[in-house]
Write a structure and sequence with these properties.
about 30% strand; binds biotin; five-stranded antiparallel beta sheet; globular; seven-stranded mixed beta sheet; 12 strands
């Protein structure tokens, strides 16, 4: 895959920026990285706080029709990020289905894959966005996330080009999987890196909190949960690992 990495200091959102380039016909594999986002977006309509100190990157994808599977793309990207980070540092990373990467029980990275449609049900292209905390922001993490977020390094990045190198490595790892996405070569590792299999979790659907146990991840990267003895597949949504407090009520 031909790499073309566009570097920006500040942007509203690298996903937004790349969507516009995509509409102008830029090629698959084009990536955008920024040091800071002023309107970073997360899953479920949330904002993604993106101060300086993070790597914010997006990649343009134009999969074949049959391969347009957001869950597989996001899961392959999660494994690619873990492999790239581990190759360049001495940390060890885990994945929380479907799109969060954890370091020592705290969130290090989030992934958001979005489609761009111009009419029919098949997207014209997709934008894979990755937000990774490299160092702690100067004034610490935002109040809302300070207890759940972490960064790769405390204060200093090992070298000036670290972010660019990491971005390149993530792209290399990701495209190895993406080029044969239907073979699911990332899946075994995705499962091994999951820290929620065989744990009690809950998820919220409508107004209801569902208490269940995560029993596995199927071949399409759906989460398999067991609730009151009945197995169910979850293809989207957010799960939370239960604490004793959750179990008490
Ligand atoms: C999440 O954790 O909810 C997903 C966060 C995805 C954030 C990345 S940062 C780069 C790209 N641009 C965005 O606006 N969002 C994604």
């Amino acid at each position: 895959m031909k790499k073309n990495i566009i570097r920006l200091d500040t942007v509203d959102s690298t996903n937004n920026y790349l969507k516009e380039l995509g509409k102008d016909g830029c090629h698959e594999g084009t990536a955008v990285i920024a040091d800071k986002q002023t309107a970073g977006r997360g899953r479920m309509g949330r904002s993604f706080i993106s101060p300086e100190g993070g790597l914010y990157m997006s990649v343009l994808l134009k999969p074949e029709h049959d391969n347009f599977d957001f869950l597989l793309i996001t899961s392959a990207a999660a494994v690619a990020v873990c492999r790239a980070v581990e190759a360049m540092t001495d940390v060890s990373l885990k994945i929380k289905w479907v799109n969060d990467i954890y370091l020592d029980d705290k969130k290090l990275c989030g992934i958001l894959t979005e489609g761009v449609f111009s009419g029919n049900n098949t997207p014209d292209f997709a934008v894979l966005g990755i937000g990774l905390n490299i160092i702690e922001p100067e004034n610490g993490f935002d109040e809302n996330i300070k207890n759940i977020a972490t960064s790769l390094f405390k204060k200093e990045i090992p070298d000036n080009d670290f972010k660019l190198k990491l971005c390149g490595r993530i792209l290399d790892e990701f495209f190895k999987y993406y080029e044969n996405l239907s073979k699911r070569e990332f899946l075994e590792e995705y499962r091994k890196r999951s820290f929620i299999i065989n744990r009690d979790i809950y998820y919220i659907s409508g107004d209801e909190k569902h208490f269940c146990r995560c029993v596995g991840i199927d071949d399409n990267c759906n989460l398999i949960v067991e609730e009151n003895g009945v197995k169910k597949q979850l293809g989207t949504g957010e799960i939370t690992v239960r604490t004793r407090k959750d179990n008490e009520g």
